[in-house]
Amino acid sequence: MVTGIQAMGGLFDNKKIAECSQPFDIDGVKIKVNEVRLKNNEDQFISYPELAQYAQLRADEIASTGDVNHESKYGTFGQWAKANNIPFTAPYETVGEVLDGPRSTSCQTVEDWENSPTHFALITDKKFTSFGAGLKDGYSVVILGNPQ
User: Which residues contact 76 (CB under 8 A, 6 or more apart)?
Assistant: First the structure.
């Protein structure tokens, strides 16, 4: 298990915990999601660039329409990656998606996911070991994966 909070770009010190009063940012979402995993005795997620790239596309798409749903003009993660010749650092066996918005803080988003049995089950599911997050105008998307 990693000792700091794992997020894209390296480890975050445990002292840099996202506060609910902090502005809404991608690092805050990553930190808060990993805090939930640690509280539930799960390993922290490791960020993967392909998942983050797709998550950002989804966040941009949702923010442009205001329609928070799991149907995307890009298709599934696998369809999008194949259509765009995205080189995988690892093939993915399973991919999940959690959405929220619009919210004004990272805490609000992750608290929404904690209070939803379906979203909570996804973010604490041990089969998911990696993730990517995207934000746009208070809308957030986390794509969960299991690289093999």
Answer: 95
CA distances from 76 to 81, 96, 97, 107, 110 (A): 9, 10, 10, 27, 23
Q: How far apart are CA 54 and CA 16, in angstroms?
A: 26
Q: pLDDT tens for residues 32-72?
A: 899 999 999 999 999 888 888 888 988 998 999 988 888 88
Residue with tokens 């990656």: 81
Q: Write down the H helix ranges in 16-104.
A: 26-39, 49-65, 77-83
Please state, as a whole number, how many other Cβ atoms lie within 10 Å of the Cβ of residue 37.
Answer: 21
Whether residue 104 has pLDDT greater than 90: no
Mean pLDDT of 129-144: 90
Residue 90: which of 134, 56, 46, 33 has the closest Cα? 46
Give the pTM: 0.77
Q: Give the phi and the psi of residue 104 in degrees, each rounded to 5.
A: -105, -15
State CA 148 to chain mean position distance.
19
